[in-house]
């Protein structure tokens, strides 16, 4: 599984519309509205680099309102949340 974060600048009046379109796309698991230099952060979780390239270079280009993007690829995850979830298997209430 490949995880990637796509940082997006979006036309101000289209932030919510773009976020909704992105969250409906296969491979995009979360979309965050954020403060700072970027407007949205899309989290992609895909099976391989081909699927990642397809989303970033074909599907995102079709979304009206995105003015700039920067794609980050994750090498490794360091997450207390993920570790707790992994060790809690079978302990659900």
Structural class: alpha+beta
Low-pLDDT ranges: none
Q: Rounded to an integer, what's the Rg over CA atoms?
A: 15 Å
Distance between the termini: 28 Å
State the share of residues found in helices, binned by percent. 25-40%
What would you say the CATH architecture is? Answer: 2-Layer Sandwich
Query: Can you identify the CATH superfamily?
Result: Lrp/AsnC effector binding domain/regulation of amino acid metabolism (RAM) domain
- Could you tell me the mean pLDDT? 90
Q: Rough shape?
A: globular
Q: Report strand %.
A: 25-35%
Oligomer: single chain
Overall number of structural domains: 1
- The secondary-structure element order is EHEEHEH
Tally of contiguous helical segments: 3
Q: What does the model show?
A:
The chain is of the alpha+beta class. The protein has a single domain (2-87), classed as Lrp/AsnC effector binding domain/regulation of amino acid metabolism (RAM) domain (Alpha-Beta Plaits), CATH 3.30.70. It is 30% helix and 32% strand. A four-stranded antiparallel sheet has the order 2-3-1-4. It is globular.
